Structure formats: C-alpha cells, structure tokens
Known about the structure:
Layout: E1 2-8, H1 12-23, E2 28-32, H2 42-45, E3 49-51, H3 56-60, H4 67-78, H5 88-102, H6 105-111, E4 140-142, H7 146-163, E5 167-171, E6 173-181, E7 184-193, E8 208-221, H8 230-235, E9 249-250, H9 259-266, E10 271-272, E11 277-285, E12 295-300, E13 305-308, H10 324-332, E14 338-344, H11 345-351, E15 352-354, H12 361-364, H13 368-372, H14 381-389, E16 393-396, H15 399-410, H16 417-429, H17 439-447, H18 451-456, E17 472-484, E18 487-488, E19 495-497, E20 503-509, H19 530-546
GO molecular function: steroid dehydrogenase activity, acting on the CH-CH group of donors
Pfam families: FAD_binding_2 (PF00890)
InterPro entries: FAD-dep_OxRdtase_2_FAD-bd, FAD/NAD-bd_sf, KsdD_DH, Succ_DH/fumarate_Rdtase_cat_sf
Amino acid sequence: MKYDVIIVxxxxxxxxxxxxxxxxxxxxxxxxxxxxxxxxxxxxxxxGGLFLIDTPEQRRLGIKDSKELAWQDxxxxxxxxxxxxxxxxxxxxxxxxxxxxxxxxYNWLKSKGIKFFPVVGWAERGGSLAGGHGNSVPRxxxxxxxxxxxxxxxxxxxxxxxKSGLIDYKHRHRVDELVTEGGSIVGVSGKVLEECSSExxxxxxxxxxxxxxxxxxxxxxxxxxxxxxxxxVKKNWPSRLGNPPxxxxxxxxxxVDGRLLExxxxxxxxxxxxxxxxxxxxxxxxWNPIWNNHGIRILPGPSSxxxxxxxxxxxxxxxxxxxxxxxxxxxxxTGYDYxxxxxxxxxxxxxxxxxxxxxxxxxxxxxxxxxxxxxxPGPPAPVKAFKENGVDxxxxxxxxxxxxxxxxxxxNELLDFMKIKEQVLARDREIDNKFTKDAQIMAIRSxxxxxxxxxxxxxxxxxxxxxxxxPLIAVRLNILTRKTLGGLQTNLNGQxxxxxxxxxxxxxxxxxxxxxxxxxxxxxRSLEGTFLGGCLFSGRQVGKYLSN
Length: 548
C-alpha cells in the first residue's frame, strides 16, 4: 500500500503533523516501535509548560511582555554563532517560532481545548545583563492537565481517525531503514515487534515477529532525541562544559535513543549542532522509578544555597533556576558530577516543585480541591515523599549533623563543617537589612515583586540557621539527561537537508530529532517552555506544508 505521508514517531510532533494531514484527508501512516500505551511520547511526562508572549494570563498578573522583548531574550540566550552554516536554519526557525508564540499560538491551543494554570511561571531567570541569557519576564504557561493535557486533543483526534479509517496507526513497528529510489526517500522498512503490555514508560520487548515495508510520497521523522543513550550523550559532550559526568540520571525512557538520527544520516541527511544539548543540574534519583535510572528534576525557586562538592558556594548567575548551562559548566569544572542544595523546611514547602506530570497529580488531574491543598503547611505530597524516601535527601535540626550526613551520603569527607557554617552565617547576616550586597538575596527580593512568585513560588527571605525555619535540609543534585538541541537540519517547510544545503527529496523531520526546528532553534540555551512548544510548532509546520 502506498501512502501520501508516513510519520515515524507518535510523540507530540508526529501527532500534530498527523492532525494537520487528517484535516485535508491525506492518506497517512503513523508508525511507532512502542506499544499503543506510549502515544504522546515525552510530552505525556512533561510538566506541560509552554512559552507564550503577551497573554491574558500575563496581563492579569501585571506582566508587560512583547515580541520585541522575547526576541531580545531569545537572541541573548541562544548565542547563535554559526549563522553562515549550522545555525542558518535554526535562526530562521527561531524568528518564526517567536512570531508564533506572540501571535496565533495562544488561540490555536485554546481552539484545541487547552487551558492554562492562572499563575505564569518564571523559568531560566538569567542573572546577567538585559541582553544576556534568560527570560526578562515570566512566560512559562503551565497547561491545566500538564503533559497529558497537551497530548489529549491530538491523540484523541488521531485515534478517532484511525478508528474511522482516515489514518493507519501501527504501533510495535520499528523502522530500521529508509527506502530509497533514484536518490529520493520513498518509504520505510523494518521489523514488526511482538505485542507488549508494558505500562507507559516501562521498557518494552524487542522480540521480532515479522518484516514490513511501506511507501509514501513523503516520510516525516518525528522520533525524538538521544537523552536515554548515555553513550551517545557522552560522545557528543562539548569540551566547553568540561568532561562528561561519570554518573547521570536519565530524564527520559529507554526508547529515546537517537536511532533514527543515524538511519537518516546514512541516507544523506545532515546532522548539525551535535555538541548542543540541554541537561539539568538538579536531578534526583526517583525513589519510585518508572524507567531505568529514572531521574526527576527539581524545579527550584531562588532561595536554596547552592554548593559544589567541596562546599564552595556558587556565585551569580549560578543560582537555582537562573542559568542551567552556566551552572552545569561550573559543576563539571570542579571535577565532580554532583552538587548540593542547603535549605530550610520553609523553602522546601514553597519553592520545591518536581518536573513531570506524575509528580503533579493535582494539576495533571485538574483538581482545584487538591491545588488548594498547596497552601496548607508542609510540602506538596510528591515533594514530601522524596524528602522521606529519596536517597539524595539529608534532614537535620543541626548544621553539624547535616554536614556529617552529607559526607556520609557520598562516602567522603570533602565537606568541612566550619567552611559551610561560615558561608551560611555570612548569607544570614545579609537578611538583617532590606538592602544587601548578596546577589542571591537581591534576586529573591526582586522575584517577590512579581505577584505570582510572592504567592506560590518564593519564600520570604529568612535566616537558614534560625531554628524556627527548620529543620535544615540538604539535597544532593545529580546531572539529569534530557534534551538534544541539535539534530537534522531542516528548512522552514521541515524538509531535511543534505550536506550541500539541498533538500533530501521526500524526507522531512519535526520535533526534537530536528533540534525542534532547523537543526537547532535554541542555539546553545533554552528559555524553557520551548521544547514542547517547539514540537507542536515544527509538527504543525510540516503538516501544513504536506497538506498542500
């Protein structure tokens, strides 16, 4: 059977492209190696944050945003420096994406039934100059329903179309080759895998029970990045960030292995910006894992003190939630692959959120009753569970016992109690006045000028060693793998390009496998909310082009 379009990957980029093609009644085949339970891919596990500009939610909170300000932030963050070559199309995609985020994106999402949590989050705050890295204003719009709330309208449309025969959806079909004829991509071939009842996120079997080959006028690769392929992550690790960590926790399931990148490259596709990646510095080992080596990221407020493995406090801009890659570089240049937060129970209660739909059941389940429980004393239930069960937490009423516990946890004596105490005392003395020279205290007070942070995100400045704010808590932070910022280079239609900058006939890409557009829409760094949004936008762009 021949199709108009074959889409490889049923993540949110592939689903978005499929929905555009369903609308114009194109003959579409959607294939994915995972069980049907995995539809939606990584988007399902996400916190559901989306980068949007000048929205009603922002305006209600007194946030003055604009496309010009967002573009200033994007350029200062991306640091595009390969504009004549690898960054050429990523830059074009970035301009188009910022236009989309300031324009029709909001109403387009609303037309799908997607709603937003009323408080806009402030991710990647920067901590540098106005033209440097980071969001000048809060732009992180959390979808009501988190990741599953984003996936639902697209997955439902695809599944309904499959049921009525408008699209063929074949899960447990692993693509191993692109079929070529006369220099064009004309289809896909691979192995049919044995049915598997694995729960979403759990590793599925690779038992082969048959072969397949399907043909189409166009093939869209929407297969994701390399975050679970630690060998490939380390191979591509940029020297500017220091040596790759010896130990990392895994922010994505095992199937996020980059196979289709290599398969596409064998067939003439060009991969660019391999050395650009986005890994988090605040990873916890999940005490209740879903996939192998499962890591969860803390989404921190700005108040925890951050120390390296030898007990040296990080300086600006390496504060919690300010500059992910700058802090990653600072950590790895110490020669160790972990760092520490020291905080109080008051900070934990208000400032610790955990990334992932399953770690935010109140928002994921759209329960206003459960949301209101967040204002009660004590941390949210998922955070409390990590505090009580997580191997990376130390809790004590005494700083001396806390430091001893930190050393015991990692099995060394790198942390000196008096050195830690002097730094904490110095920080606490800065709380006595409403003015200070401590850049982190300044940042905390500035954050609380934003009503959203003051209400639910940033604890009032207080002394860590005052017993009424305790107990004291230390958290070992691991490097957590997550996103691939480079990928298949594509033009604005999503056509995959070869090493000469020419389209590979018949081959398209969307989502993380294409660096979220162009082979690297983010440049070196992300403003957050732009991964999920980049998948939606690139999938939509490809789908619209192939709808003609």
